[in-house]
Design brief:
CATH superfamily: Metal-dependent hydrolases
Strand order of the largest sheet: 1-2-3-4-5-6-7-8
Helix content: 40-55%
Shape: globular
CATH class: Alpha Beta
Distance between the termini: 38 Å
Structural class: alpha/beta
CATH architecture: Alpha-Beta Barrel
Number of strands: 8
Number of domains: 1
């Protein structure tokens, strides 16, 4: 039997059109519907041109990997603490991209809780009156702070899930960078909201433990190397219904991140939930409210 690391390496190679000598075929769910990638951006060294050109490139790569839909947020260049004008500019770039995605990309609106009024206005512009279906929060302010409450309350009214970047860096976090513990505090204040812990804290063992008690938070597995045990622990501790696949494209490859799921020693049913079922279920209320095809 191949080790976790060998399985992940083999799967990543197969996903790129290669097959290592002596490698077993990856375990893919036999009845898997098209994958939905939960986490990505319009920036990356492989991308250039306008937003519509960038999404076309991303969809070309996604087609090679059997990825049906992309969730995209934040434009370019990034800003840690964006002004209202910067928020609008980046959200306009995402709006352009999803408009030219032929229905295959969904947008999350990028907000800054240090800019409450501007963020609420963008939430209404892009979600209530626009095609976006969720909220993206990054590193402007740690998410346990009270300034996030009005944003979350409005997101609940709109049936929009909130994706919060969570990370714990060995070199020290940015001043406004959140951890999974911060998100757990926010989620406990807003039990009716749906949250996604992007990166599951980076240090995923601690992140998974921090999220166990808050049932309205899903752990998203994107952005790190395909380390053995990550997905297995998340499924064991949280249940397969609270784990989401995302790649963090274009900063990470689709192949390396899919390997985390295809190489995991979990059931095919759990893989189906992680790769598409859970995000479909999470987005179903807002897609239905907007009359959009799930």
């Amino acid at each position: 039997m191949l080790s976790h690391t060998a399985r992940a390496t083999a799967i990543g190679a197969v996903a790129c059109g290669l097959k290592p000598v002596g490698a077993a075929e990856p375990s893919r769910p036999r009845t898997l519907e098209g994958v939905w990638d939960m986490h990505g951006h319009l920036s990356g060294t492989c991308l250039s041109g306008t937003p519509r050109e960038r999404i076309a490139t991303l969809l070309e790569y996604a087609d090679r990997m059997g990825i049906e839909r992309l969730v995209v947020f934040m434009g370019y260049p990034w800003a840690y603490d964006p002004t209202p004008d910067e928020l609008r500019r980046q959200n306009d770039q995402v709006l352009e991209a999803i408009e030219h995605s032929h229905g295959r990309a969904h947008g999350f609106v990028y907000l800054n809780p240090n800019q409450t009024d501007a963020s609420l206005a963008e939430l209404d512009r892009c979600v209530a009156h626009g095609p976006m279906v969720g909220v993206k929060l990054w590193v402007a302010l740690r998410c346990h702070e009270k300034q996030l409450d009005p944003i979350v309350e409005r997101a609940v009214e709109l049936k929009a899930p909130v994706l919060q970047h969570t990370f714990r860096k060995l070199t020290g976090n940015l001043p406004g960078e959140s951890t999974a513990c911060d998100l757990a505090k926010l989620a406990a204040r807003h039990p009716q909201a749906s949250f996604i812990a992007a990166h599951t804290d980076g240090q995923w063992e601690r992140g998974i433990r921090a999220l166990r008690a808050v049932k309205n938070v899903a752990a998203e597995i994107c952005g790190s190397d395909p380390t053995a045990g990550f997905v297995e622990m998340a499924v064991r501790e949280l249940g397969p219904e609270r784990v989401l696949y995302g790649s963090d494209f274009a900063g990470r490859s689709f192949a390396s991140q899919l390997a985390k799921v295809y190489g995991a020693e979990i059931s095919d049913q759990a893989k189906r939930l992680i790769l598409s079922g859970n995000i479909r279920r999470m987005l179903q209320p807002i897609l239905a409210a907007k009359g959009m095809k799930p």
